[in-house]
Write a structure and sequence with these properties.
The protein is built from 2 helices and 5 strands, in the order ββββααβ. The protein has helices at about 45-55, 60-65; strands spanning about 10, 20-25, 30-35, 40, 70-75. Helix 1 (about 45-55) runs antiparallel to helix 2 (about 60-65).
Length: about 80
């Protein structure tokens, strides 16, 4: 088994707010913002990541379903 943080695969996002997202097996969601900031969100169910990727508006989905809903860490 590989370390999930080093093996996160980023998915580019078509969003004015978010540049990319990565999700690991330990339910950690890492979001790269267009500003260059990177945040890691913990205990995020897989469906939240899948719904973010599928959302028509990634920014709206983020604000409604991720921001302020999960413990997070500012990485960069």
């Amino acid at each position: 088994m590989t370390d999930s943080h080093s093996q996160c695969l980023y998915t580019a996002l078509d969003s004015s707010l978010l540049a990319a997202a990565a999700y690991s097996a330990n339910e950690t969601l890492e979001l790269q913002f267009r500003s260059g900031a990177v945040y890691r969100y913990f205990a995020v169910p897989p469906a939240v990541f899948q719904n973010l990727i599928a959302a028509t508006s990634k920014e709206t989905y983020f604000h409604r379903n991720i921001r302020n809903n999960f413990r997070y860490q500012h990485v960069v």
